[in-house]
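ok so for the tutorial part 2 we go from a plain amino acid sequence to predicted structure tokens. step 1 is just haveing the sequence, like this:
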Amino acid sequence: MVRILLALLLLSFGSAAWTQSYPSKPVKIIVPFGVGGSADVYARYLGAKLQDSVGQSFVVENRPGGGSIVGSDVVAKSDPDGYTLLMMSNTHTVNETLIPKKPFELMRDFAPITGVSYSDLIMVVHPSVQAASLKEFIALAKSKPGALNYASSGNGTPYHMAGELFKSMAGVDIVHVPHKGSDQARVAIMGGQVQMMFDAVPTMAANAKAGKVKAFGTTGEKRSSVTPELPTLSEAGVAGYETGLWLGLMAPKATPRPVLEKINAEVNKLLNSAEVKENWAKQGTITMGMSIDQFDKFLRQDIQKWSRLVKSTGMKVD
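step 2 — the prediction. this is what the tokens look like for a chain of 318 residues:
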């Protein structure tokens, strides 16, 4: 019995020492989306801040494709040592129902760390669209079922789901055109290859203000502080419409709890700082710092939320 207790004690000390030294080499944050989107922008911001606070590099690597599946699978199959993290979003909770045949399951193959950010979306159309308001756009879409289309950064992404929710609640038939990333979708809407898009306020508001696209409203319960002149979609004509984009961090499932807690503490310290809160608020973004268990509960509830929409609308992807 003494030998067993001694072995457990030594194992505990070894684990504690290893955790205290973490990170002892660069940490990779894989973003399963394209360059320039919200996940990429906030991952790079966090990586730079974490490098300053812990003295080790946090390298962002973009692995877009498959509506987040390609890059996420890389993380799922990585060593569970805390040196490969996933910047994920509500795309992942949607895909649990929308794309059931994946090489991984979110809550089985990943360990929650913390929520990172939330931002409203903004609905924009190309300037050539013959509509000056949301109500006029809905009337136009109803007069031409299947003739208009909208861009997204891929199946299951918040931009895709915002479009499907809009179609369902407004009673319109608009064709979904998925892209490999939000950067490509943005190029398509500004180039006129598609007529409409939902995008994150921080990444599209400036284009709307510059006249490159026409904005009809934002998707939150309240108007965005970045675009207070724009109504919410609920105010503008689709009563009760509300959705958004959130980001979070996860790791491979078997990552030791002490390592997850250390990452959680460092990230939440940044998210709770006045500098980050004020900086992100100016962009229309809210920090989401949570405990590991709180984020676990949040993820499970979000999976259920999107499961109801996917099943009720009969949504399917190829």
